Amino acid sequence: MQKTFYQKELLIKATQQRKGLNNNKKDIEKIQSWLNLFATQNPNAGTATGIDGDFGPATEKAVLNFQKFNGLSQTGTVDQKVFDVLAAPLKKAFEDPIPGNNLRDLIVNTAKSHLKNHPFELVINNQSNSGPWVRSYMDNHEGTDWFWCMGFVQAIIDQAASVQGKNFKTLMPLTYSCDTVGVTGIQKKLLTRFQTARTNPALIKPADVFLIQKTTNDWFHTGIVTAVHGDLIETIEGNTNSDGSHNGNAVMNRIRNYKQSKIDFFSIESLVV
């Protein structure tokens, strides 16, 4: 794999605890982030707390609640073993075996694996587009200006391609920009424009990358096509929400009508062959 920053998100340097001599602000922020991410899926667990890098009484109580909820010893401290449980969704998304007989299947199934582990951004230091999932997709970049939909797409393609020993950068450059991938598609003749896609849906295939146009050579959102149904495409996309925003907060499975939107399609076929 080319995008491996996620591995650093799975580790803390030392046991973290209230008034601990080895406390580390970044590690405590990681712990607080995962406590909050756990709360989004388990709102009754009592693990939502501030993300400030300070292991105070509120963080200690949130840790105790997390340990109780998961049947762990209630110590109020977080060593690597406890952190492994906290960060398990990220490890599963990036490292669980992915089934698939070909690259297209692998890409779709990788996207589904991430989806079921609930990638979600956080607001840290008043900055949206933050947290361990965003940093993993964006190679340690985070913050309000770092839209992460393309980072998600490339992480999925990279992970799937690596199963077959392929480098996704032979298909497109490492980038966080929809425009860069769109222009690459034009240059390599891999981009099907929306006008053509509307008249010839057979050109759209699962695992291709959709790019929503703002203007002819300006795209503002992307994701993975997982299925085509008549006038509709089914997608898995990051940095979105229930309204289909290009700056939402989650990875979601969405339905889009490609015949009513200016959606271009970047073919991954050259990586498949």
Automatic annotation (TrEMBL):
SUPFAM superfamilies: PGBD-like (SSF47090). Pfam families: PG_binding_1 (PF01471). InterPro entries: Peptidoglycan-bd-like (IPR002477), PGBD-like_sf (IPR036365), PGBDSf (IPR036366). Gene3D superfamilies: PGBD-like superfamily/PGBD. Residues 26-86 form the Peptidoglycan binding-like domain. It comes from the Bacteria. This is Peptidoglycan-binding protein. It comes from Flavobacterium circumlabens.
